[in-house]
Amino acid sequence: MPLAMGFAEELRSHWAAFAVLFFANGMKNLVNQVEVAFARSLVSCTEPLSEVYTGSQWCGDRLEVISVGYSISQRGQAQESFAMLISILMVAVLGSVFGRKVVLLGGLLGTTISVALFILACAMPGWSRVLFVMGQGLQGLLPIGHLAGLIIFDISVKGGGMATYQVKGLLDTIGGLLWGPVLGNFVQYLELVNYSTVWMAIFLMNLCVLSAAVFLMPESMDKTKAEKDGEVDTTSGAFSKVMREVLSYKDVYYNPLSWRFLLMVCIEPCWTHVLGMIPIQLMAYHGWSQSAVTMLILLQPLFLVFMGIVPSLCLRLSYTFMMPACLVYLYTVLILQQLTIAVSDVLPIIMFVAFTLIGGFMPLKEYVDSRFSTPDEIARFKSVEWVIGYVLGMGIRPVYASVFDASAATYTSRSMPNFLACACMILQCLHVRFIMYPYMRVTLGLMDELENKQREVFLAVTKGDSPLDQEAWQAAALEKHLGKSFEEAQGPFQALDGFREFCKKEPRRWLRLEDVRGHRHT
């Protein structure tokens, strides 16, 4: 009950901020979900329209619509990546000096103007492509994920605490299901050729969100502390704060290990982009309709269904074995998917289902990746990773668009984007195996050591069918190590899994990876 009361009170106290972030994030996700189909509707050609749905309101050549529409979309995405890069840097500076609300209002104004340009593009065929690219670029002025994280943090430290993140978690779950999978796919399923009504509805919603942000949402950042520190009222204070933050990144460039990590970051976006081309290739080479490719979303829940397979196998076979095994399996499945999509529409779907079997691998990979250095340095690595991703996005998308040909008839010409992606995957496999894995193996060994210690202790304190053996408990001095008396600990140890969860709940004195400072990758 106290938890529920804290949740409700937090939602009631900051409802305006939560509402603005929820709908701002939703409108941007909806635009990104629809923009590829919308780009196809803007293609014009000399082929007259027929009864066959092509996706365009001005062109009857279906393959040309798919090819040119994808090219338009990727140019727009490149502009959005550039704008996002600039806005991320601006948020880091202006958001700390002038407040979060000012930056949020600028981003919301940009996305509202963006949708207005989309409306004009529907009515002006001669200018439609230019207006689309400009509108897509303006979408990048709102880095809603980064901004929302700052605002939620501000609200949390003002007293909301964990309840703030619980409200955010609930709204993110609802939004993640509503905006893209439901509304976005529904719009695509309709197979429209004129999106004026859709954009008008989104434009009106953006106006409402912008108005709510202006008149109802308060500034989340506590400027009182900054003013006391002398970092906001004076130009020198703000400038020195910015310079300290910029100079703190010099360790990223002087640390040899960081270059190994960032090289992996540079390679990965070069092939992950091709995964978004699968629906486009299914439409171009296998005759799938726009409404049919939206049904691929039904495969997404398989990631949740199979989420527990990898963690379970790690406990049985060891983390040291499962990490390279999962990497080999992952890249084998993805490469087979890329090499078969030009000739079959069934095999790539089978490969996608096979990919979902290791849905629990990504949390393991992210955890291991986060243990290469100290928390502060890892945070800087992640910031640089965002910047690298946006910089690469400006170039990678047009490259893939230039080698994609919807009307290609041979295996080689159809597979050119996939060959490029496979080459990048193989390069990353070699990088991980020979450059990164020696560092990963240290963390994986510590994780296996922890699991073995837990198993040994569990076997030592259990006897036959009895959950606990009091003499063994006292002999092992577990009351000292775990901070629990024998009477308090009775019950959770019915099985090894229960003991493992019990150890996680008592992290004060139990051996953890975070406590083994001297054995980290550094």
Automatic annotation (TrEMBL):
Where exactly are the transmembrane stretches of this chain? 81-98, 105-128, 140-157, 196-216, 261-280, 292-314, 321-340, 346-364, 384-404, 416-436
Among its keywords, does the record have Transmembrane helix? yes
Is Transmembrane helix found in the keyword set? yes
Keyword annotations from UniProtKB, A to Z: Membrane, Transmembrane, Transmembrane helix
**Which protein, by its recorded name, is this?**
Major facilitator superfamily (MFS) profile domain-containing protein
